[in-house]
Amino acid sequence: MIDLALLPVYLTTVVALLLIPGPDMLLIASSSLSYGRKVGVYASFGNATSGLILTLLAAMGVSALVAMNPFALEVLRVLGGAYLLKMGWDCMRSSAADAPEIEQQNNLAKLLYRRAVMSNLLNPKALIFFVLFLPQFVSTQLSASSGEQMLALGLLLNVMGLLFNLLLVALVGTLGKPLLKNDKFRTYQNKFMGLIFFALAIWLLASQVQSIA
């Protein structure tokens, strides 16, 4: 369901996009640095889950309908910014005693998974990206429908993105190991994540989202 003539260009473009720092990379890297590789892995899977949902919506044409509605995009932007601000506030008001112990990583990993899913789904730019990017590689030379081709292209994008993020987690998580054993850092690790969420909220709320109509 992917035109082999377009595949090399598509793969090259995806790799280039993955190497560009963005909010997803920041969230995954900071999670790995602050709480360890396990949490970073869960955040990576959260990002992949949201990407899969957006792929399905794009293939069904639902995301295009939303992306053509300026009001819907604005609502998504505000909701996404408010959600990130809440996450930031929750982290900032945590005390030093709330710094997670190793045995608490399971709950923390699940929490970061949910946060990664929601932060991407509530980002209208992510939705517009799937609407604008995937159709560029839909071929008229194949018998498969445009929806089927977009589904295949989106799945490939998500697999490559997940592998890239897991590599990032391995690298950053290894570098951050000494920090997790540092009592002073552990005192402020929730505050650090709070600042990350605030930065993501400001980025989203300050950005301009254009419809594709």
UniProtKB/TrEMBL annotation:
Subcellular location: Cell membrane
Keywords for the protein's UniProt record, in alphabetical order: Cell membrane, Membrane, Transmembrane, Transmembrane helix
Keyword Cell membrane: yes
Keyword Repressor: no
Pfam families (UniProt xref): LysE
InterPro entries (alphabetical): LeuE-type (IPR001123)
Membrane topology label: Multi-pass membrane protein
Residue stretches spanning the membrane: 6-27, 39-60, 120-138, 150-172, 192-212
Name of protein: LysE family translocator
Organism of provenance: Shewanella electrodiphila
